[in-house]
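Mods, move this if it's the wrong board.
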Amino acid sequence: MIRYRVRLAGLNRHHFEVSCRVANPAPGQRFSLPSWTPGSYMLREYARHVVAIRAASDGSPVPLEKISKSSWKCGEAGAELTVTAEVFALDRSVRGAYLDAKRGYFNGVCLFLAPEGRETDPVEVVLERPGDPRARGWRVATSMRAVEVDEDGFGCYRAEDYDELIDHPFEIGDFAEVKFEAAGVPHRLVIAGRHQTDMDRIAADLARLCEAQIEFFGLPAPFRRYLFLGYASGRGRGGLEHRASSSLIFSRDNLPVRGHDAVSDNYRNFLTLCSHEYFHAWNVKRIKPRAFSPYRLDRRSHTRLLWVVEGVTSYYEDVLLLRSGLIDAAAYLRSLGNKLTRVYQTPGRLRQSLSEASFEAWDKYYKPEVNFLNANVNYYSKGALAALALDLTLRRESATTLDEVMCELWKRYGQSGEGMPETAFEQLVQDLSGLDLTEFFDAAVRGTDDLPLAELMADFGVTLEFRRDKRFGRAGSGTGAAAAPPLELGIRFRPHGAGLEVAVVMADGPAERAGVSPGDILIAIDGLMLSEKNLLARLARFEAGQTVRISGFRDEELLEFPLTLAEAARESCVLGFAGKPDADALTRRIGWLGT
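Not the wrong board. Structure tokens:
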């Protein structure tokens, strides 16, 4: 058995101390840390956070040499070898490790050195109770199997092997918690960070959601217990799935307050995040691309199926909120309209396919540059639209649904543990439906044209309208039918003390044609000061086709740009129910939305 000991060594220094003890080490035993974490497809090189490392055997130091960016080699040792590392932890994200006087958190890839050649050995972890008086009253939350722990959760845990070891994150601190059951499975929700919320309300709602998802794939659930690890923050949103838990970060303003029974848009945002990560317990933690079977955490593992892993999950995140009764069909269509809008406001959707976006995620999606929106597509949102189009196509043209496809994937690959081949999803869809969908997948997955969603949804009694909006520097000169159409500069910007800092110049837009670049600070339009607050009013003075003088700084040099204003594109998507759908459309809509 490989034995680890974790000590919260310095709250102010943000240091975890982690030791790994190996019996009968190999000559020149090597240890390494992962370069990435499953669920987040970018090389993060966790070894860079190691600030000190040493080795010992039988009470004597053992030479230890770093031989690569993330691995070390030990010298001659006796019957037992212990390697101890100090790790700097100040990453609040779900992918990292964090420690201060308020809380501790770690994702196992950040701390646990892997003794090479011993990754399949059983593992024991001892988490020491911190001696710092500021940590008095701290407790532990993790889905790892407890063996001998105290009333607060400090003590000994076990995992079957290294793969399981790094799949159970730990939350340590003074957190709120609540327990509930779904389909007979014990669940636990903990929320760290400052917040005021109705924990019982969340537990009741999550119980409905989790039960709907377990019933979707069928009993039994793939875990004996499940843990939601939440951190309420002032900003930020994200999640990371694990085999029996998920780590979530969200705005504290998204949590429900006692006495407010409605599901607000903010609260729905929180429930959607929970739904997404919970669905991953099936789709990717177990229904896994062959490239991830097994995970090779020292290198990129390319697959063209991330749109299935994330896009299909993004489609079902709100579908299952609807089916569990937490939102109604109108709220579902509003959320779906927001997904469509995000995609249509991305020019890169016409340049990069879903297949390419999946394969190139390692170097593009997680490292967005200023031209990202013009050259790339988000495989979460666009993948959700492809899943929507596929589901509607199947429902319209066959007796099969995407539900049946996902359940069959679960039986073939999730329950068996076999990695899913790159062509398996498309082949299974066609086998189950009896349809030749080659053209569909060529267009939706390998192509870059917009999907025919308006036509598809019309056959389900749902309308899709494209409108102009006022976001990202767009404005209108009035309201009502006679109002002039809103205008656009063709930029995305951040507020700046001097004016507007250009974050993105949209492809083929007015700003690009005028020569504006990302990083420019725009300060005036036709000699009048420009700011986030007055942009709409300034643009309302002009008409489409007029050329205005935009003044701004680039690297402290004052420049002027002759910019010809254009009407804002119709990219805001609004969905609604058709007034009088025919009987077939109404039947299809009931089958899809339940209403």
